[in-house]
Automatic annotation (TrEMBL):
Biological process terms in GO annotation: regulation of DNA-templated transcription
Protein name from the UniProt record: LuxR family transcriptional regulator
PROSITE patterns: HTH_LUXR_1, HTH_LUXR_2
Taxonomic source organism: Nonomuraea glycinis
Presence of the UniProt keyword ATP-binding in the record: yes
Keywords carried by this UniProt record: ATP-binding, Nucleotide-binding
Keyword Nucleotide-binding: yes
């Protein structure tokens, strides 16, 4: 409590309370808000419901809809007028609604800005979002937006069940911005002592017997709610007796107290009057707090009887009242009663509930659909669910619309035309959500109904798009896409989309000529598209493909498109143009262009939706640019944080490659190798454009370990795949490592042949990596025959070319190899050249490379002058071993050190063992004592 209160007192702040159901999260928050630290601050509280509604941002609506008095006279900008549709109760204090936009994502972002402005206008406040494990996707997106734009006087309190919370909710509260005060409390079950204290407090006595407390703790599993319920039941039974100033049970053997909540709640309900029992059953079916009129409608009892039953349930502590509505105090109690209602009566109550809630304003269509389905009224459920999905789309809640439509398609009995129509609708909606559902089987089912040709083509296109998102079956994806083209003759925008997709040169086993033919057809079809945003979107994807194959036409096309896009309002399709071209430029090594375009995409994408797909993908690709260009400071942490957000999306592969690259440079070779092998396996079946990265790393590892032949064998399929696809501008990245590995394996003619093959393949192409990578490979050929001056010239030219991109890590490797040749030649400039390389590796914190280059100098008798902070040369510790030893001395465990340094626990153990051996330490304590001693130069 003190930790939470301290954070609450330092806004802007975010407080997280995590714990299982019944652990006391809500009670803790209630007590927190009664503390002096919350005095003078407006409390805005809303909860997420288990029954989803097609009304997005439910907890925010609940928290803000009654703030009209506080907002009267507030200086709100026109953007706050976007909230009128969400808050009809506040229409009198909100500005006029702005003109509608033609982009739902842009509308959503404007809505988020309006909410942020209203929260700021309400002055010092605490926003409480309860049960965030049930939050709808828009609420999660808004919280992410708010945490990035939090008013200075606002504190946010979030509660959730840790075992049920989605990764996105946990990620957004895990590492908020540095300017926010952050506290995260995980509530654990009570032990016997805590149970004894709670029981005494509930019973109003000084203490209870230790034996009684132990029994109570076991039966309640340490859950405060269960303890409360069991004590209430024992009191009702008369099973408590006074004991030396406290309380005890009658006899342990005679009293059979049910474990957990379920039996105790049911027994307490069973002691109520018939009318009160009927009311509790109706409330259990409804699940949510409702007005008294709804309970009257569900029970079918006279209003007076229902009122008496509600009062009885309130007196028994089962119900709670809030703002004129009543319902169960806790969801676990409602669930316990619900499970005890016989199936037939349960269905009858659900049917009555469906009718009763339709009298609410606005009509909760999600609840209507839920009750109709549980009542077994399938046809009515389908109709209600479709209405709810329509409403969700109108309100911009794509995730909820997708969930409803998927449910209808999987469980409803639909005529074939309706099935096809809804499947098409679901297919497009699902491409807009952050966590795309796996619905490929639904497209296949709709296609079996033999829909009209145009519908069939759209279904095939959507099936192919979702197969691509799932990365599950590339061969089937291409078959469906090609079949779609034949069916979409009257839909140029969809036909061009299919042609563009078939032209992407990343599908394994497809020739470059076939890709180019599809791209040319797409370019011919695009002018027939009347809608400008769709035309630009598809042109951007076509140009992306041209970038990947080095087709020089792409620059003129891109320049014209960039000018046109700049003159249009931000729209997710037009923002996709700089993203698509920028993402391709990352792979070809054009890092300046990639960073510029991806920054534009991120900024304009954030205008539309800061947490939407374009913004998130742009962030992922910008991190990849940071890795490839050598901007590594803080990169590991950023990769980890974004990786947690993208745990269920394809973009995680982009981050995985950069993460593995950092592991390799840090010297965590086994972990890096494992990840690169995983990524190569994925690329071989889904996207050949990603293959040069892992192949390069695996070849470098093989060379370093003296296993070049094995490395060549395990990467041969990948090299053949990108060469077959004509991806010379991408594959040249791996050429230096491939050439060096072939030379190390004694296959000189093949090495020379590889360089000649890439020289030929790259001729006439726009390939930024070509010049430095070819020079790098030629340097290896020259060094392989002892032509040291020639090799130095090639390696130096390669480094200069890499630095222009920039590609600092590759430049440092080329300069290291130039220094090695200078050492072999006995050149006086070798020592300063090598020291410059060491300095660059130090800057990058590339420990593996630093150790290798240091060893190179020592072999030639040079004093490399590595800084003390990089390790302990007196005892031969590497920098990483020194770092691990230093953290051990602070008292951290291996697991904690692994998290701190972004290593595996196994790697930490390996570094620790090496450090202890070099110090002669037999324990962690002894190692710490060694580190306390001064080190003499």
């Amino acid at each position: 409590m003190d930790r939470l209160a301290a954070a609450l007192a330092l806004p802007p702040s975010v407080l997280v309370v995590e714990g299982e159901a019944g652990i006391g999260k809500s009670r803790l928050v209630t007590e927190l808000l009664a503390r002096p630290e919350a005095a003078g601050r407006r409390i805005l509280s809303g909860g997420c419901g288990q029954i989803r509604e097609p009304f997005p941002l439910g907890p925010l609506v609940e928290a803000l809809r009654s703030t009209g008095g506080e907002l009267a006279g507030a200086a709100l900008s026109p953007v706050a007028g976007a909230l009128r549709g969400l808050f009809p109760e506040l229409a009198h204090v909100l500005p006029k609604p702005p003109e509608p936009l033609d982009d739902r994502a842009a509308e959503r972002h404007r809505l988020f800005r309006g909410l942020g402005e209203v929260l700021a206008a309400l002055g010092p406040a605490v926003l409480v979002v309860e049960d965030a494990h049930w939050a709808d996707e828009q609420t999660v997106e808004f919280l992410s937006y708010l945490l990035g734009n939090q008013p200075g006087s606002l504190s946010i309190v979030v509660t959730y069940r840790g075992e049920e919370v989605p990764a996105g909710v946990r990620a957004l509260t895990a590492r908020p911005r540095d300017v926010l005060t952050h506290e995260h409390v995980v509530l654990a079950p009570l032990d016997e002592g805590q149970t004894r204290a709670l029981a005494a407090a509930i019973l109003g006595s000084e203490e209870v017997s230790a034996e009684f407390a132990a029994h109570l703790c076991v039966r309640a599993s340490g859950l405060p709610l269960a303890i409360q319920e069991l004590l209430a039941l024992l009191r009702t039974r008369g099973a408590l007796i006074p004991w030396a100033g406290g309380w005890a049970r009658r006899t342990l053997d005679a009293l059979d107290v049910p474990s957990g909540v379920r039996s105790s709640v049911r027994e307490r309900v069973g002691r109520l009057s018939p009318a009160a029992r009927a009311v509790t059953e109706a409330a259990a079916v409804l699940q949510l707090a409702v007005p008294l009129a709804v309970l009257i409608g569900v029970t079918g009892l006279p209003p007076a009887a229902v009122a008496d039953g509600v009062d009885e349930a309130l007196d028994a502590g089962l119900f709670a009242e809030r703002e004129g509505m009543v319902g169960f105090r806790h969801v676990l109690a409602a669930q316990a009663v619900y499970e005890g209602v016989p199936l037939g009566r349960r269905q009858t109550l659900h049917a009555a509930a469906a009718d009763a809630v339709q009298g609410l304003v606005p009509v909760p269509l999600g609840q209507v659909a839920h009750h109709l389905r549980q009542a077994g009224r399938d046809d009515d459920w389908v109709t209600a669910a479709r209405r709810a999905a329509d409403q969700a789309v109108e309100l911009g809640d794509d995730a909820e619309a997708a969930r409803l439509l998927e449910d209808v398609l999987r469980r409803g009995r639909l005529p074939e035309p309706v099935q096809a129509e809804l499947t098409v609708r679901l297919g497009w909606i699902a491409t807009e959500v952050l966590h795309v559902p796996d619905i490929c089987d639904l497209f296949a089912a709709a296609l079996q109904g033999e829909p009209p040709r145009a519908v069939r083509g759209e279904l095939r296109l959507l099936l192919a798009l979702h197969l691509n998102l799932a990365r599950s079956d590339p061969a089937r994806e291409r078959r469906e896409m090609a079949a779609a083209v034949d069916d979409l003759g009257d839909r140029p925008e969809l036909a061009a989309w299919a042609m563009m997709a078939l032209g992407l040169p990343t599908a394994p086993g497809t020739s470059l000529d076939e890709h180019v033919a599809w791209l040319d057809r797409a370019l011919e079809t695009v002018p027939a598209i009347g809608e400008p945003t769709m035309r630009l979107y598809l042109q951007g994807k076509i140009v992306m493909a041209l970038v990947l194959i080095g087709d020089p036409r792409w620059r003129d096309l891109a320049e014209g498109m960039e000018q046109e896009v700049a003159g249009l309002p931000a729209h997710r399709r037009t923002v996709n143009v700089p993203f698509s071209i920028g993402a391709a430029a990352v792979l070809t090594g054009d890092h300046h262009l990639a960073r510029r375009l991806l920054t534009i995409a991120l900024e304009r994408g954030a205008e539309i939706d800061a947490t939407g797909p374009i913004a998130v993908r742009s962030r992922a690709s910008l991190l990849q640019v940071a890795y490839l260009s050598g901007a590594w400071e803080g990169l590991a942490r950023e990769l980890k944080e974004l990786g947690e957000e993208l745990s269920e999306r394809p973009e995680r592969d982009t981050l995985a490659l950069a993460t593995a690259g950092l592991l390799l440079a840090e010297g965590d070779l086994d972990a890096a190798r494992s990840r690169f092998l995983d990524q190569m396996r994925i690329g071989l079946t889904t996207d050949t454009a990603d293959l040069p990265f892992p192949a390069t790393a695996l070849l470098r590892l093989g060379i370093a370990r003296g296993t070049a032949p094995a490395a060549l064998a395990e990467t041969a399929e990948a090299v053949a795949a990108w060469e077959a696809n004509g991806l010379w501008p991408l594959g040249v990245r791996a050429l230096p490592a491939l050439t060096e590995a072939l030379l190390a394996a004694g296959r000189r003619e093949e090495a020379a042949g590889a360089v000649a093959r890439y020289e030929s393949g790259l001729r006439g192409l726009d390939a930024p990596l070509a010049v430095p990578a070819l020079e790098h490979a030629r340097g290896h050929l020259a060094a392989g025959t002892g032509r040291w001056p020639e090799a130095v010239a090639h390696f130096t030219a390669a480094a200069a070319g890499y630095e222009l991109l920039p590609a600092a890590y590759e430049a440092a490797q080329a300069r290291e190899q130039a220094a090695a040749c200078l050492l072999e030649a006995g050149d006086d400039t070798a020592e300063p050249a090598l020291k410059a390389v060491l300095a660059e590796y130090e800057r990058l914190e590339a420990r593996w490379d630093l150790d290798r280059a240091t060893q190179l100098g020592r072999l030639h008798g040079l004093r490399t002058g590595r800084r003390r902070g990089s390790g302990d040369p007196e005892r031969g510790l590497t920098a990483r071993q020194w770092e691990v030893a230093r953290l051990v001395a602070t008292g951290l465990t291996n697991q904690q050190i692994a998290r701190e340094l972004f290593l595996s626990a196994k790697t930490v153990d390996k570094h620790l063992s090496a450090a202890m051996q070099k110090f002669g330490a037999r324990s962690r304590t002894e190692l710490a004592r060694h580190l306390e001693r001064p080190i003499h130069d």
